[in-house]
Design a protein that fits this description.
It comes from Saccharolobus caldissimus. Keywords: Coiled coil. Residues 46-100 form a coiled coil. This is SARAH domain-containing protein. The chain is an all-alpha fold and 110 residues long. 97% of the residues lie in helices and 0% in strands. The chain has one helix and no strands. It has one helix at residues 3-109. 0% of the residues are buried.
Length: 110
Amino acid sequence: MSETKFNAYAKAIIEFEEEIEKIKRGVADDSKRLIVLADSYISELKSSAEKTLAEIQKSIEDEKKKQIDEIRSKYVAEREKQLSNIRKEAEKNLNKAVNEVIKQLLGVFK
């Protein structure tokens, strides 16, 4: 083998190894960029999920408050209705009692 071919082979091997190292560095750099990009997307996804969860919780709280207010309003209305009925019955009973007292007084004075 001539020295020129030997030098050419040696030079080709060195260039090949240098290209392999460049490719390895390129792959490592690309991997780092992909990891950083994935981390960025994960952060955005997490932020979006937290925002959506907060909106859902607020919606649930608003709906719960609305239902509680409706129940409270119905309770107050029902209570007022019952109090009104009690007042009417009390007035009837008072009228009956007054009429009975008057009747008894008239019976005493006759």
